[in-house]
Each structure stands twice: as structure tokens, then as C-alpha cells.
Specification:
Beta-galactosidase, Chain A, domain 5; 37 strands; Glycosyltransferase; about 675 residues; single chain; 12 helices; alpha+beta; 2 domains
């Protein structure tokens, strides 16, 4: 997956962007090169701050480790020695989205036995602080020399990823620490207590510390720069409600807690409109603006409130193309790789079709009517583009792909049309009946043009070429055919497929070719070009698995949904409940573990949101805030046993639901006046 990284984004969902995205965290000039592997790295995230560390915690100045601020590496070397020795690492790991803890031990010179007398604990935070604690296990006072070697290249993250960060810069002594300057930026490290000696030529700070018997002493480092930034601040904590999951399977709570923390850590402000926030696509390589992933993240987190959705919609509406040309109303987005069988797809088309869907569903979850009214013109412009771009059968080709019609694009278009009709009706705007008829035409055209018959029951084509040839491979994009969207009164829209073909798609998605045991493969194991590490050619992408689980459950195929859900939960446990954007689609075996993709972002916004979406599927909450009702459609098989989801948000008020081991749902807390629908 050789991708362009220095703009701060690989494009929505893993594609390549050809220009820096608006609002992206700046990471310097564009280069192309192979990404370093990050699957073993400990990544602390609290954007615009970022800290990347090896498991032992020592920053050596090699590779991509270091403290970053707004895409600039402020510190690449932070190497601790105690009594002239390097501490022996015993444990390193994340303790929160933005903090890591490293533990090492030191056996001091002259010790009577082989046991270490000193524990060195380092707490590293994405905000640019590090606390180094020396804890004594001795019954005597220890006088310990400590030195910390510091250095930086002030390189952009993109240059680091490309393997050309530049040489380490010379330091100068600055107050209680060191300072580096270059390329219009400077970085300062200050220490508390101040060092007894500071050597700028070698980047060394030195102390002679006294550690009480059985006690401890600390050194705190603070890394900062004068580069203007917009820190997260307290605003971000309220963007998503503080949901919790309690029940028979403890993995649910661990996944929900980690996903929420990661999403909050990846939120950034729109530079031109600081009140609006959105998630970056993924860390560390995609800290930029990705329209489709922003909307997917907001859609999957609607049970946690509509604030993120409203901000995302406002942010995307400002990028919408104006004028009267063929692109008018479309939301721009970069291309992304689509695997070995298809040309790159346009994420702008996906975002344009997802915009009215998110607005319609956010209204049902409780988005204020004045917000809906303000955003409705942008949604109508998206729909106008859709009508102009589709053919007489309502089938939609993609600009820039020679008119290729992808099956999942038709699913996006159909969902947009059906939900737009409900939205227009609910807001008293004209055109709803026209969009229902348009969707019916698309259903007829799709069922006739995209189905491939065979002796096993057939399958939907992945795409149709402009000359009518069908691309027959089976991939994870098929899951979007089951994602019909939420209507008022707890209803789901009619899908592109009839009942018989829906059942066949469910069988295919639940079969061994697609279900790896860890989640849904991006490309079927029997397909030509399958590669379990191919990011669109066989790897498991959590987002598509979550779409499949929700669609299968809503269609009544709980056995297949439960299998995919169980696979992702097992994988999440292996990844410390921080789901990567993808991992290898190898077949699960007894006692096996999922194989990480070396260059996958972790955390990634849509993966974190997908973890939340998977858990919400268990309860099947179907709100209609304008009508003052909420319906429950829990998975009757209760694949995780009993579970209670608390701290959700419906109609702007706290909402909690409990599902029993028998799959029966019960509302525990709801807004006053909210009625339980059927």
C-alpha cells in the first residue's frame, strides 16, 4: 500500500488525495514512499498532539517515533540512562487514548544481589508532557545520576513517513532545558526540577537525584512550540455522550470505552469555523479531512447524540460545489483504491449521497428542526446532482471512471432517494413522491441489470461497465446492498434486492469465502487477486463488517450477523480493543490471533465508530424524535447475552436500553413524553 502521506491524508477510506485537504493537519510537502509499519507502535492521540513510541518507551531518534504537534515532530529523541545504564524494559502499553505507560528496572552498580533496586516509570502524553518517576525498593537512600538525551529534526510527519526527515538539529540551552530552531519553527523542552547540567552540543540534561528508601522522585518534561494550534479543549468532551455497556460479555464495555476515547481524541476544529468539529480519518498517516469518512463516523455515532452529525454536515456543506455545471451540488472528495478488479472510486460521490441520508437519520434521532431546516438546501443540492448524473434507469455512473456503475454506488443512491423522500415529507417540502418513484425505477433497473445467475443461486455484480459488461467478483461492498437506511416509526426502507436475492446475499456474506472468522473479507477468498493483506483485496475492514452486521440483523439473518460480530469482537480483544482500520483476512483457527496490517492506521475514525455501531445493533433502537416515539428491534438471539446500553441520546435527552438473554428489549431511561412504538 504505497500511498502519498505528507498531505496528512490518504483520502477517504484509504485512497490517495492529489492536494492538501481543507482543514487538514499540515504535514509538509508531498512525497511518495512506502509507509513504515506501525502495528507494534504505541500511539497516543490527542490532536493536534501525537506521540508515537516503541514498546520499550525509549525514543532513539530512529524511525518515526517522537512527539508531534500539528504534523511537526518536536522531539525525536528522548533517551533515559540511570547510573550510566539503560533501564531494562519490562512493560509498555496505552492506559488511555492519549497516554502511555512504560515500566523498566535498573540494577544499580554495587548492588548486593541480582535483584533490581530501582523501577523507572514513564508516563507519556500526547499533549507533550512526560513524567519520569524513579521508585526505590531499597532500604537505604539512593543517590542516582540520571541523564536524558534529547534531540529533534523538526521534520514533518510526511517526510518522516517517506524516510527523509533530515538531520538532527543543533540545540541551545534555554532556561531549564533545551531549544531547537529551524524551518520557521522551534521546539523547547523544559524540565522540572531544572537539570544540574545541560550540554547543548550533545543534547544532554543531567541530574544527581536522591531517592528516599522505599520512596520515589520525579522529573517532568514539557515539550512545546510557538506554532499556532487549536487545542481540543473541553468542547470536545461533549461531542459524544458518555455511553456505557454493561452485561454478560465484558468485551462490549471495553470496546465501547476505547472507541469513544479514540474518537474524542481524533476530533479537530474547522479552522474557519472553530465551533464545528470533525474527526480526522486515522492516525498517524491520515490526520486530515476525509469527507466520506467524516459522514460515516457521524452516522454510526448518532445514538451518542446529533452534535457531531450537525457539525459534520455544516462542514461538508461549505465544500459543496456551486454553479450550474455538471458537478454542481457534488461534494468534492479524493479518489481511493478499489482493489484489483476496479478502477479507483470517487469518495466525493459517496459523500454527496451520504449527506441527505445523515441529515434524514439525524432528524429522527433528535437533530433540532432549525438545524435541519438550515441544512436542507445543501441536501437538496446533493439530490439535484444525483438526478442530473443518473441515467434514465436511475443508475448512477461515476465521473472520472468512464461511467462505470458500481453496485455499492447504486445502494448509496437508492438509500439517499428513499430517505430524502421521508425527509422532504417531514419538513413539508415538495418532491417526496418524485424521489419515491425515482427509487422504484432504480430498484427495477438494478435487479434486472446487476444480478448474475448461476447454479448456486447467483450473486450481484460488483459493477457494470459502460458497454454493459458485468464485473462478477464478490467483495465486501456487497454489504451496502443490505444497508437500506432508517425511516420514521422504526421502519426500514425497501432494499435494492427482493426477498429471495437478499437471502442469497446473506448466505454469501456469511459463507467461508467472505467470513474469515475475524470479520468480513474485502474480497472473497476464492476470487482472483485475493490477498489477505490487500487493503481492498482481502483484508478485513471493520467499517464494511459493521455495515454487514447491521444489514444482516435488520433483514432477519441473525446467524450470519452474529458470526461476523463475534469475529470482530475477538479481533478487538487481540488489538487491546483499539480496532485498526483493517487487518489481514486470514482464516481464523482455534487458538489463533488476527494478523495486523503493518501500515494500517490505529486508531481510525470509522473503525472506532464501527465498534459503537456493532454494539448498538444488538439493541436495535429505532427513534422518531419528531413523532415522539422510539421502537426497539433487538437481536433476538442475544449473541452477547444480556446487555444494558446507558448514556445514549434520543431527542436530546439521556436514553438507556436493556436487552435480556432472551433477546427482549426494555427501555430503562428516556425523555419525558417519548412513547415506545411497535
Amino acid at each position: 500500500m504505497a500511498l502519498s502521506v505528507p498531505s496528512g491524508t490518504r483520502g477517504a477510506a484509504g485512497g490517495r488525495s492529489t492536494a492538501p485537504a481543507p482543514g487538514a493537519v499540515p504535514v509538509g510537502p508531498r512525497r511518495r514512499g512506502e509507509l513504515p509499519s506501525v502495528h507494534n507502535a504505541l500511539i497516543c492521540v490527542g490532536l493536534p498532539g501525537l506521540a508515537i513510541s516503541p514498546e520499550h518507551g525509549q525514543l532513539t531518534g530512529q524511525g518515526f517515533d517522537g512527539y508531534y504537534q500539528s504534523g511537526r515532530r518536536l522531539l525525536s529523541r528522548c533517551h533515559v540512562r540511570v547510573s550510566g545504564r539503560e533501564p531494562v524494559s519490562v512493560r509498555g502499553g496505552l492506559i488511555a487514548a492519549g497516554r502511555a505507560r512504560f515500566v523498566a528496572v535498573v540494577r544499580l552498580p554495587g548492588a548486593a544481589g541480582p535483584d533490581p533496586e530501582l523501577v523507572v516509570e514513564r508516563l507519556r502524553s500526547a499533549d507533550g508532557t512526560e513524567r519520569i518517576t524513579l521508585r526505590s525498593a531499597s532500604d537505604r537512600v539512593l543517590r542516582v545520576p540520571v541523564e536524558i538525551g534529547l534531540g529533534t529534526d523538526l521534520a514533518f510527519l510526511g517526510a518522516v513517513a517517506a524516510g527523509s526527515p533530515g538531520a538532527e538539529l543543533p540545540a541551545t540551552v534555554h532556561g531549564a532545558g533545551l531549544r531547537w530552531a529551524g524551518d520557521g519553527c522551534h521546539a523547547v523542552v523544559t524540565a522540572d526540577p531544572p537539570p544540574e547540567d545541560a550540554l547543548a552540543a550533545t543534547g544532554l540534561l543531567r541530574w544527581q537525584l536522591e531517592v528516599p528508601a522505599g520512596g520515589s522522585t520525579d522529573i517532568e518534561l514539557r515539550i512545546r512550540t510557538d506554532t499556532p494550534t487549536r487545542p481540543a479543549g473541553p468542547l470536545f468532551t461533549g461531542a459524544l455522550s458518555p455511553a456505557s455497556a454493561d452485561g454478560d460479555d465484558p468485551r462490549a464495555q471495553s470496546l465501547l470505552r476505547s472507541s469513544l476515547a479514540d474518537l474524542r481524541a481524533m476530533l479537530v476544529r474547522d479552522p474557519g469555523h472553530p465551533a464545528d468539529i470533525y474527526p480526522v480519518a486515522g492516525v498517524p498517516w491520515r490526520c486530515g479531512f476525509a469527507p466520506a469518512e467524516i459522514l460515516w463516523t457521524a452516522r454510526m455515532t448518532l445514538p451518542l447524540g446529533t452534535r457531531l452529525a450537525a457539525a459534520a454536515l455544516r462542514r461538508l456543506a461549505r465544500t459543496q460545489l456551486g454553479g450550474t455545471g455538471p458537478g454542481a451540488g457534488r461534494i468534492p472528495g479524493p479518489l481511493r483504491d478499489a482493489g484489483p478488479h476496479l478502477p479507483p472510486s470517487c469518495t466525493g460521490v459517496e459523500a454527496t449521497l451520504l449527506f441527505p441520508v445523515l441529515l434524514a437519520e439525524a432528524r429522527l434521532w433528535g437533530l433540532a428542526e432549525q438545524e435541519v431546516t438550515a441544512l436542507l438546501p445543501a441536501a437538496e443540492r446533493c439530490l439535484a446532482w444525483l438526478r442530473a448524473a443518473a441515467d434514465e434507469e436511475s443508475l448512477l455512473g461515476e465521473p472520472g471512471a468512464g461511467g462505470l456503475q458500481r453496485a455499492e454506488t447504486q445502494a448509496h443512491a437508492h438509500r439517499a432517494a428513499v430517505l430524502a423522500a421521508e425527509l422532504l415529507d417531514g419538513c413539508g417540502r415538495p418532491g417526496a413522491d418524485g424521489w419515491r418513484q425515482w427509487a422504484a425505477t432504480l430498484r427495477g433497473g438494478f435487479r434486472q441489470a446487476f444480478w448474475i445467475e448461476d447454479r448456486t443461486g447467483g450473486r450481484p455484480a460488483a459493477a457494470r461497465t459502460p458497454d454493459g459488461q458485468l464485473v462478477p467478483h464478490l467483495g465486501a461492498g456487497t454489504a451496502h446492498l443490505l444497508d437500506t437506511g432508517l425511516l420514521g416509526g422504526g421502519r426500514f426502507a425497501e432494499g435494492l434486492l427482493d426477498k429471495v436475492r437478499t437471502e442469497q446475499v446473506a448466505r454469501l456474506l456469511g459463507g467461508p469465502a467472505m467470513d474469515s472468522g475475524w470479520g468480513l473479507r474485502g474480497l472473497g477468498a476464492r476470487e482472483r487477486g485475493h490477498n489477505p493483506f490487500g487493503h481492498r483485496g482481502g483484508a478485513v475492514r471493520v467499517h464494511e463488517t459493521a455495515v454487514a452486521v447491521a444489514g444482516l440483523a435488520a433483514s432477519g439473518f441473525e446467524k450470519e450477523a452474529s458470526s461476523l460480530l463475534g469475529g470482530v469482537l475477538a479481533a478487538a480483544e487481540s488489538f487491546g480493543h483499539r480496532l485498526p482500520e483493517m487487518y489481514a483476512g486470514v482464516q481464523r483457527t482455534e487458538g489463533g490471533v488476527p494478523l495486523p496490517h503493518p501500515a494500517a492506521c490505529r486508531p481510525a475514525a470509522v473503525s472506532a465508530a464501527s465498534g459503537i455501531h456493532l454494539l448498538m445493533t444488538l439493541a436495535g433502537v429505532r427513534p422518531d424524535a419528531p413523532a415522539g416515539t422510539v421502537a426497539l428491534r433487538p437481536m433476538s438471539s442475544a449473541p452477547l447475552g444480556a446487555i444494558q446500553l446507558s448514556g445514549l441520546s434520543v431527542a436530546g435527552q439521556p436514553f438507556s436500553v436493556r436487552v435480556s438473554r432472551l433477546g427482549l428489549g426494555m427501555v430503562e431511561e428516556a425523555a419525558a413524553g417519548l412513547q415506545l412504538g411497535l
